[in-house]
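Posted in: Protein Modeling Q&A

I'm a second-year student putting together a small comparison for a lab meeting, and my supervisor asked me to include a predicted structure for ABC transporter ATP-binding protein. I've never done this before, so apologies if this is the wrong subforum. The sequence is pasted below exactly as I got it from our records. If anyone can share the structure token output, I'd also love a short note on what stands out.
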Amino acid sequence: MSIVEVRDLSIAYRAGRREVPVVREVSLSVEAGQTLALVGESGSGKSTIAGTLLGHLRHGSRKTAGEVRIDGEDVFSLSGKRLRALRGRTAAMVAQNAGSALTPSMRVGRQLDEALHGQGLTAAARRSRAVELLGQVRLPEPESLVKRYAHQLSGGQQQRVAIAMAIAARPKVLVLDEPTTGLDVITQRGILDLLSALAGELSLATVLVSHDLGVVAAMADHVHVLRAGRTVESAPSRRLFSAPAESYTRQLLASVPRIFDRGLVEVGEDGERHARPRAEVADAEPVVDLDAVRVGYGKRTVVSDVSLQLRRGEVLALVGESGSGKSTLAASLAGLRAPASGRLRYLGETPGDLRVPAGKRPRDLRRKVQLVFQNADTALNPRRSIRDSVRRPLRLFGIVPRAQRAARTAELIESVRLDAALAERLPAQLSGGQRQRVGIARALAGAPEVIIADEITTALDVSVQARVLALLDDLRREHRLACLFISHDLAVVRGMADRVVVLHQGEVVEQGSTEAVFAGPNHPYTRALLDAALEPDPEAAGTAEPALAWAHDDHDETWIDAGEGHLIRRWKEIR
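Accepted answer (user: helix_wrangler)
Welcome! Here is the predicted structure, written out as tokens:
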């Protein structure tokens, strides 16, 4: 019997005097122990449908037809009291960003205690149950962890706490809204293995919303494909991934980066994939030089003795787990975090010291190195129009005369493939992909020579991600931009980057051309990253083998030279 039953559901929101449909006649069902995935591009209605399972509708939205039944109850006919009882006890949700879903001023134990209220437990029993829940979601030292605040946990630990809160009341339905977005591949693999195990142990009916089709292939029994609020295709996971029936599904699957792609992939209307050859940068001169750079927070060292060069026209990828030092190193290069020691130099026409904070750098040096942030939602001023956001650096750096700024702003907006009609809109009126393009246009306004792209496609669906990556690749070719590219998605790195640097706990453990690093031989940590990467193929979605235990070798020669610039840090196995 189905625990989740959605029949002919239609939802619309009011825009002025008219109603705009966002979900149109969608039907689906989920049984106990089954995982159903909702997939589709941004605006397809997948998160809206997921929200209705807990009786949530966005402000201004309403159900115009159909019904939603959870464990036999019509959700939208429940009284306020019965709806509150449904949420948490019968159906629970794990949100996309656990860091913002958890209350920052409350300790983990207190938040779990709140989730356990109403179960008739004593305070002592609730404390014991909180520790038990943290153990159930595979968190180490749960007795200590209940005393911590959310900001004292890693992203993966925060997500596990959110899962513990969701299962506290032993619900029958678990709604997962992008549960692994922003997590590195090893943490992501652990979270997915945990969720799969919990679904089996607790016989949960699970509804998964995800733009990551590798995650869907690893978790889902059945996949429901949506486009513009309508069902395009619905099929068992293995059948849909192996033989999609609809052209839209084929295009969606074809847009997913694969770890064996040798270049960015362009997808035709028929779903055919064609790899774009990489730009030739083999003999390009270096534009940034890092030598023995060390960066820390207080007494804690986050980046330790990193040395590398970034060449003109090159995409250099930094990869590694959360906490490996990728973003800290990028922040130091951008002038947002001063290094504790080492040399950090810009080597262009007018060389400069990049150890100097951004606000104290000479204006010309400051514009040469620009940062595109991970979250375009918070990186753009919500009260500035798109035109103002892009035009502001032109005024700040003074490289364009006032009379020419309007024309140059229009050129920049056009250069990132945005419609000129969007220029007067505010960020909230754009899609995630459009906002990310605005961030790129703003970074380009200063005519930089170095672009730092920090996880810029993390929250984008696969088709939008493909367009943003192709745009960035076009711009670096056209302007010979040096790009420091940070990503936890190794398939994206394989298609985008010319060279790869692997960081582990702030140290470089491997570096070399993309082809050499992905082909091997590898450092055991690099191998663990590669093994944990998810492919959009249920047949290849098994649990990754644990990495062997290792430690760095105190050999006189620190590096193993695998040839042609491929360097691997020496290690020894620990039995």
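A couple of things worth pointing out for your meeting: The chain has 21 helices and 26 strands. Residues 2-105+169-242 form a domain with the Rossmann fold fold (CATH 3.40.50.300).
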